[in-house]
């Protein structure tokens, strides 16, 4: 439904970052943001009455750096932190002393595997093995699994694309989308969530349950109902919606 100015009132759009808005790169800091993306996201946010948020495993500050000068609503660290209308909550490293000790252990135990990267995000941590030799990748995965196990039930292991992350157990992208949906401008709108990874499957399930529309980007088994082939297709869709094309996610190809 749209008003005379073309604003769409029916949908709220939630977007994963890596593998959805941008192509996967060899290292977390090597991601390239298409120059047309940010202006299109800003126009689309306006069209959706502000109901557009990034839902990512990255910290909010990192998303700001990639998408500057814009500042979007963001759920960062898989929902551990959330910024709505400029107000940031959650994600304080000092609230996670056990995790901090776990990060030290990860550094110590992976030090001999040169191409294994530790991405310390304060209130969560990722161990990356994309650039590692197969044997080293296996060792890195075993280490992050052991550290996550030893941290106990307050934390969970989140496996993704050549990465294992340790995240506070209470946070998921599904919870983050539901939290956004409790207040304006998101409340009362039908959620659309686009994501590409195992971490996004949790949110696809809850979005489906709540009557929203889940869209898997790329290949792989999924509980999502719709599919787009690549981040390039996602950006083309965002550009079209930003320019006024009808926002009708039910017409996207089935998953
Ligand atoms: O929730 P997302 O926005 O999809 O973030 C998930 C993780 O993405 C990043 O790692 C992945 O992308 C990197 C850059 O393309 C790639 O090098 C890596 O292999 C992928 O796993 C990011 O570094 C993590 O912090 C995010 O949690």
TrEMBL record:
Q: Where are the transmembrane segments?
A: none
Q: What is its EC number?
A: 3.1.3.12
The record ties this protein, via SUPFAM superfamilies, to: HAD-like
Give the CDD domains listed for this entry: HAD_TPP
User: Which cofactor(s) does the record list?
Assistant: Mg(2+)
Q: So what does this thing catalyse?
A: alpha,alpha-trehalose 6-phosphate + H2O = alpha,alpha-trehalose + phosphate
Q: Which Gene3D superfamilies match?
A: HAD superfamily/HAD-like, Trehalose-6-phosphate phosphatase related protein, domain 2
Q: Could you tell me which pathway this protein works in?
A: Glycan biosynthesis; trehalose biosynthesis
Q: What UniProt keywords apply to this chain's record, in alphabetical order?
A: Hydrolase, Magnesium, Metal-binding
Q: Do you know which Pfam families this protein is assigned to? A: Trehalose_PPase (PF02358)
UniProt-recorded Gene Ontology molecular function terms:
trehalose-phosphatase activity
Which family, according to UniProt? Belongs to the trehalose phosphatase family.
Function (record text): Removes the phosphate from trehalose 6-phosphate to produce free trehalose.
Q: What is this protein called?
A: Trehalose 6-phosphate phosphatase
